[in-house]
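Before surveying the methods themselves, we first show a specimen of the format, giving the amino acid sequence and backbone structure tokens:

:::
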Amino acid sequence: MTKLQAAREAALVRLRPVLMTSVATVCGHFPLTLVSGAGAAARNSIGITVVAGMALGTIFTLVVIPSLYVLIAKQHQGEEQGALSEGFDEANTGRDAIPEPVEAGAK
């Protein structure tokens, strides 16, 4: 798997949860940017900060970080995806490490 393929796959996996979280947060805090009345200045500044921060954070998460990964990461050749986890699972299949449950009243 090339760096570009890895970045693309990771972006596709993360796209929906990141967008759902960001849109929910922005929609929830957006009314703070439209407030008026007593204390409006404080609530307005908090709303603008949260909305702008989430928008900027989302752009960084979905665009900037994967782009930096493609530019900086080394090209890895060799083991296919999941090869390490398969070896880990095989090493930890022994049941002797898990104690048997003890029934109440048994000695």
In short: DSSP finds three helices and no strands in the chain. The mean pLDDT is 79.
